[in-house]
Amino acid sequence: MNNEMTLNAPKSRLSQLLSLPLSLLKWLSTYYSQVLERPVSIRQTLHLLHVQTAAFLAIFPLGCSALFRFLCILWLISALLKCRSALQNIC
């Protein structure tokens, strides 16, 4: 006699934790698509977030050293160039 049991395993905890950031990225991608009036992929959304983070750190840390501010400005320029090339690939 065969004893078979079907188990309906719930989603793993890891997949549940990973689904939240992905859904936020999809929402941001939709938002950027509406603002730019053209489709924006998740990769391009990550480029835009990268530029925003670099700009925030280049502008707002007022009490930091000149070296830190200079490095943040270099990071901002690098992020802007990468974002520009990524957004030019929009059809």
Structure notes:
This protein has 91 residues and is mainly alpha-helical. It has helices spanning 13-36, 42-59, 66-87. Helix 2 (42-59) packs antiparallel against helix 3 (66-87). The radius of gyration is 21 Å and the shape is elongated.
Shape: elongated
Total strand segments? 0
Helix content: over 70%
Low-confidence stretches: none
Provide the succession of SSEs.
HHH
Structural class: mainly alpha
Q: What value does the Rg take, in angstroms?
A: 21 Å
Mean pLDDT: 85
Report the sheet-strand fraction: under 5%
Number of helices: 3
Kindly, what is the distance between the CA atoms of the first and last residues, rounded to a whole number of angstroms? 61 Å
Summarize the biggest pleated sheet: none
Short description:
By secondary structure, this protein is mainly α. The chain has helices at 13-36, 42-59, 66-87.
Which secondary structure elements does this structure contain, and how are they paired or packed?
Layout: H1 13-36, H2 42-59, H3 66-87
Helix pairs in contact: 1-2, 2-3
Q: Key features?
A:
91 residues, mainly alpha, 3 helices, elongated
